[in-house]
Amino acid sequence: MFKKILIANRGEIACRVIKTARKMGIKTVAVYSEADKDAMHVTMADESVCIGPPPSKESYLVMDKVIAACKQTGAEAVHPGYGFLSENATFSRRLEEEGIVFIGPKHYSVEQMGDKIASKKLALAAKVNVIPGYNDAIDTPEQAVEIASGIGYPVMIKASAGGGGKGLRVAFNDKEAHEGFASCKTEAKNAFGDDRVFIEKYVEEPRHIEIQVLGDAHGNTLYLHERECSIQRRHQKVIEEAPSPFLDAATRKAMGEQAVALAKAVKYQSAGTVEFVVGGKDKSFYFLEMNTRLQVEHPVTELITGLDLVEQMIRVAAGERLTFKQEDLKINGWAMECRINAEDPFRGFLPSTGRLVKYVPPPAENGVRVDTGVYEGGEISMFYDSMIAKLIVHAASRDQAIARMRDALNEFVIRGVASNISFQAALMQHPRFTSGNFNTGLIADQYPKGFNAADVPHDDPLMLVATAAAIHRQYLARNATITGQMPGHEYKPGKEYVVLFNGERYPASITPADGGWDVKLAGGNYSIRSRWQFGDILYRGTLNGEQICMQVERRGSAYRLFHWGVQADVQVMSARAADLLALMPVKAAPDMSRFLLSPMPGLLTQVAVKPGQEVKAGEVLARIEAMKMENVLKAERDCVVDKLLAQPGESLAVDQAIIGFK
What we know:
The protein has 662 residues and is of the alpha+beta class.
């Protein structure tokens, strides 16, 4: 067994590998960019080495620097995590030449299966079902349009070295194929250093189901059942679960056996994933790609099998045999994972960067697990992906897992950057998700105009009103005990208040009762009978005998409540104050219609127009890159450019003006 390994990655996956290595008694080495000098994985590891500036192409993607760090620290092996160099055959081969073990498959397996074009040809040879398409690299947008038309729309344009939804577009016509090809090549070049692109038929109403495989150097190859990954937004997985609510035992076995056949064809040694697209009506399945690495969603497989996949990877890399057989791998209960990302669901899921002012995950107990690489006070950088944490739950059944996930999301406190927790909570109570009757188009179908607060209805809005009233009254009661008040003129909280919520006035009568509060509203009475747990944000108590947990941000008499994914802004005040507030004029927002504003923080990579230029609706104005994704900004209507207010290479803030129009 190795005495010391280096983790060629960052963030939560680096921390995840360090935890297992520590459990196995193996010392660890972290590498980090200048942007990550204070990152969690750096402090967790036994040693650390800085390998360059913040951009990954100058640090985490530079093989020479990683190999030099191995030699400097005496690391015998490298775990690549996922992303970066994890599926780079050259890196695997170079490590082998240097006498350093790659904790993953052999370089020839990475080369054959990491390349999507080559992997499809191998799958055909191994008699694995594949999707119709053009399996060679495409050189020009015109060629892409010709091929796409020949296959028949819709088609998927995919980067050969792609992954994680990057370098991927769906085209429904010639125009989209032409534009999608150019964007895919650019993203692929920036993210993977390989701009080869191919095209395949897009299966409509599909499910995305993947099989976890594990092989050793002694010819043993097994499948560890499936993961359901159909809940996706723009081809990025949002929720994963194991097992799938869609598969039956016969289909599971057939998919598992094909995955093993493919792995054996390339003499696969390590953990890997064979991804399939599955037809929703007849359960027909087609090979999509093979990821020759650990997957982001591997924890759900760990929870239903009881295996530590990182440990298995390390043991296989050290030459050990698998100690179990296919018949030993049972499915125990149900597991789900929500990816908690730094993105604003109420602003089109645009990336959010900045400091984590508050970061309090739910307790890792009672079937709840949190994999993360951040901490309160840490920075979410624009240079890397948007993941803050992975929230994973395990329970006896799918319904119980959903309920457990809802509770965990409700307690997850993140402030300082936007997060997608509200969106995850909405999905957890969506009828199509809870029924298991969904496909990869669920999010696009159900939220065609984007996601907003109205998409998360609350079962009892008056409960939010009553809770805000009780919290406000308790604040006032606490303030009344402050020393230094003038004798005979002590502050005494009143009983009658007005709650303003969703443009409505709710008169509320609040009285102390049995250590809590009775709140009387026109629509019902609410009794809060336990003391609130006063912290900065998280509050617990009982309401009408039911235990509740709620996040509350206080801003004077205003409160922002977070409950079951609902974000509600509420104000509590006297009736006179409410009347005065209604008389105050509303300040109009400045007219910014003549400016192109940056929709998110990011790097301005291109300004495609010049002062005086006439622009037609739909033409490209600028391109912004953030968290490894390229975002193209187009003109909404015909216009004339007046002046340029930002230059390529500039780091932009949210709503910063880029272009002014006449």
